[in-house]
Amino acid sequence: MKTVIAEKPSVARSIASIVGATNRKDGYLEGNGYQVTWAIGHLVELAMPEAYGFEKWSLDHLPITPNPFKLQVTNQPHIQKQFNVVKTLFQLSHQIIVATDAGREGELIYRYIHQLVQPPKHVPIKRLWVSDMTETTIKKGLAELRPIAEFDRLYHAAKARSEADWLVGINFTQGYTLASKKSKALSIGRVQTATLRLIVDRFKENKEFKPSSFYVPKITLEDSSVPFELSCENKFQDREEAQKIVEGQQGKTSPEIIREDKTNHELPPLPYDLTTLQRTANKVYKYTAQQTLDVVQALYEKHKALTYPRTDSQYLATNQKEDVSKIFKGLQNFKIQGVETQDLQAEFIANIAKNPVFNNGKITDHHAIIPTGTAIDLNGLNEAERNIFLMVVQRFFQSFLSPSTKANRKLLTVLNGYQFSASSNQVIKKGWRVLSLEPQKEIALPEIEMGEKRTIVETAVHVGMTKPLPLFSDSSLLGIMETAGKLVKEKSLRESLKERGLGTPATRASIIETLIKREYITRKSAKLIPTQIGTALIDSIRELSICSPELTGEWEYKLKQLERNEIRYEDFIGQIREYVITTFPEVVESAKKIADIQTPEEKARNLSLGKCPKCQAGEVRKGKKSYYCSNWNQDPKCDFTIWITSFNKRLNDTIVKALIVKGTTKKLKGFKSKGGKTYQAKLMLDENKKLKLSFE
Predict the structure, then answer these.
(1) Which of 685, 589, 547 is nearest to 200 (CA)?
(2) pLDDT-derived band of residue 349, with 50, 70 and 90 as boundaries?
(3) What value does the mean pLDDT take over residues 28-41?
(4) Which of 139, 161, 233, 497: disulfide with 485, CB 3.0–4.6 Å?
(5) d(CA 656, CA 674)
(6) Mean pLDDT computed over 32-44
(7) Predicted pLDDT of residue 641
(8) Averaged over 630-654, what is the pLDDT?
(9) Cα–Cα distance between 406 and 410 in angstroms, integer?
(10) Does the pLDDT value for residue 663 go beyond 80?
(11) Catalytic: 308?
(12) Distance (Å, rounded) from C-alpha 504 to C-alpha 506?
């Protein structure tokens, strides 16, 4: 029996339908000599400190540096059940086919399972490496299975990354939280902390920015049709200085005008990688990075409409030219920007042969995101799926259309020693822009002979204001995370970050959501704003390397060396252990700076709504799910409690204060019965200070 293990159930079902494993079993599908099962993401993970004997958080035993690391099955019943299914199937297999996602993390998912299961040594293990879930691609991949040993270096890099993040995350998070004396964990991590610093720094720059005025002299020249304006190419801080340049010029003849005409060919855009797709979707539809990732993942797994989405490449392999022709034929009935795609057939096919999008040297684990060509009913997609799918189809077509040609004209003259100019652009051949999302704004400048002079009919001084860099949105943050190498001074590290950036395309969206979940940042009107505690954390550790992109650059540089077998796993992880041991005291010392700063949760918990009506000694405070007496853990204990959601209505501080002071409220709306009907009632405390309804 051959056992195929996929990363997710949806992928397993796709493979099972192709190999003939149609009989549903508990946790796998079976048939035609195959058993197809799945991992539900990470079935196995690095063990937590408890596995090494450290049950409680304590500075006494930190930092923890396991050698070797232990693995454990994720502590959730449905995951442990699925692990046992995989374990049983592996033991009964004659061949194992690894079909987890084709990338660093996909490799790690299988290898961790393998280490705990320990299948019989005589069982051959093969790797399925595919970029989409279409039947043709999967069949081809199954016919060209590769030995698992080919991916050992990828696994070693993934293992090193995983263990290094554990060493930094566990030790710095526990140490910082304990030293800051916070009741809620303050998470620190290599990528998330460097990302948080970007957000904090941009917010501070924006809020502390002091706008200043600048002045630009302008002249308007006569023309038989419409007068045209030339602007000084210098900006002046002093209005009078700007005014002097054009003062008294109205009605005079201008100096000689120089005309520069150029024809520019604008190459088609490349297909999407995940980050560019997320950025465009955020700008056009205001989708968050996570929303776009979820949608494109569904289009890949569920609908089989797109290729593998978690890619950082915008290029295709040279052997995909025939596939691209077939994909085009499956997309001929679409209309994009009012253009029938079948009308583009001749131009599209003609541009396949020598298109620079085919470049093996620009592909890492996966090629660009493109349509699979599978027939798809747009009415069967939800709105977000339809929008994202058509965006990818549009970019795919644009990549294989002709360049756009523009006629650029610049008119300039020199007045009182300063250059004045104006430029215009006109599209003379649309090319790929026939499918452009944005209409092109065209400004026409008149035909003027070289050296011609015109009458100055008007002068003016434009007043402008300097502006700060805008606050980060999902789109702009993804952009700077992708190009974080620009922030790094050391050249080799900058080059490594050029390849990877902060995080990976697959993880950047979750990093943003994690920062929000941990209350380090909030999303307001599509802008990412740091919270007080997020700002305080960064300010306290600003000088430490964990807060800087350089650390990620250094790691990624060495992980790429590891993938190429240029350094050993043991050397890399040894350096990380040394880094954690030497940096840990600085992290602990930095945490003491924020001991007096309260998190929003601490502020709410310490805010008293009044004296407890039951014990008359404690204060009523607000927790996550209830209002409670501050003496709940004292001796004697007070169990006074009002649940925030009571009788299917969410209570607020005003209502609870009325109950504490008066023992009752006015008639309130919004209660719901079990049948879903709404009704009105009063709330009151009975003789035992228990909450009840009153219909009097």
Answers:
(1) 547
(2) confident
(3) 94
(4) 497
(5) 23
(6) 92
(7) 94
(8) 90
(9) 13
(10) yes
(11) yes
(12) 5
Q: Which long-range contacts (CB under 8 A, 24 or more apart) does 166-171 make?
A: 166/46, 166/69, 167/63, 167/65, 167/576, 167/577, 167/580, 168/546, 168/576, 168/579, 168/580, 170/48, 170/49, 170/64, 171/62, 171/63, 171/64, 171/65, 171/580, 171/584, 171/587
The neighbouring-strand residues paired with 650 are: 645
The residues that bridge with 558 in the sheet, in sequence order, are none
293 φ, ψ (degrees, to nearest 5):
-60, -45
Residue 667: strand, helix, or coil: coil
**Bigger pLDDT: 6 or 374?**
6
Q: Is the dihedral of CA 163, 164, 167, 173 positive or negative?
A: negative
Q: Which amino acid is at 349?
A: I
Report in angstroms the alpha-carbon separations of 584 from 141, 536, 541, 546: 47, 19, 12, 11
Per DSSP bridges, beta strands 44-46 and 23-25 are unpaired
Question: Which conformational region is residue 46 in: left (phi greater than 0), alpha (psi within -120 to 50 degrees), or beta?
Answer: beta
Q: Which residue out of 308, 520, 557, 628 is catalytically annotated? A: 308
Residues linked to residue 670 through DSSP beta bridges, in sequence order: none
Give per-residue pLDDT as tens, 455-478: 999 999 999 999 999 999 999 999
Q: Which SS3 state, helix, strand or coil, does residue 664 take?
A: strand
Check pLDDT > 80 for residue 341.
Answer: no
Which residues sit opposite 215 in a β-bridge? 236, 463
C-alpha distances (whole Å) from 128 to each of 42, 89, 143, 151, 411 are 18, 18, 9, 11, 60
Task: Please give the average per-residue pLDDT across 159-172, as a whole number.
Answer: 96
Report pTM.
0.81
Q: Closest by alpha carbon to 281, among 341, 201, 369?
A: 369
Distances from the Cα of 196 to the Cα of 45, 549, 603, angstroms: 25, 11, 22
Q: How far apart are CA 106 and CA 98, in angstroms?
A: 9
Interatomic CA distance for residues 101 and 129, integer angstroms? 8
What is the side-by-side strand order in the sheet with 620-622?
620-622, 626-629, 641-643
pLDDT digits (tens, 9 = 90+) for 84-104: 999 999 999 999 999 998 888
Residues 390 and 395: their CA atoms lie apart, in Å, by 8
Average pLDDT score over the chain = 91
Both tokens of 423, joined, read: 């430029």
In Å, how far are 222, 259, 290, 455 from 420, measured between CA atoms? Answer: 15, 12, 47, 15
Q: What pairing do the DSSP bridges indicate for beta strands 649-650 and 645-646?
A: antiparallel
Predicted confidence at residue 40, as pLDDT, reads 85
For residue range 266-315, list pLDDT tens digits in order: 999 999 999 999 999 999 999 999 999 999 999 998 899 999 898 889 99
Tell me what pLDDT residue 598 has: 67
For the cut 80, the answer to whether the pLDDT of residue 596 exceeds it is no
Query: Which domains can be identified in the chain, with CATH numbers?
Result: 2-144 (3.40.50.140), 161-207+476-594 (1.10.460.10), 213-264+404-465 (2.70.20.10), 274-399 (1.10.290.10), 607-694 (no CATH)
Q: What is the pLDDT of residue 432?
A: 92
Please give the single-letter amino acid code of residue 82. Q
Distances in whole angstroms, Cα of residue 23 to Cα of each of 4, 27, 98, 100, 285 = 14, 11, 20, 21, 42
pLDDT (mean) for 364-371: 87
Three-state SS for 461? strand
* pLDDT greater than 90 at residue 81: yes
Question: 497 is written with which tokens?
Answer: 């970050």
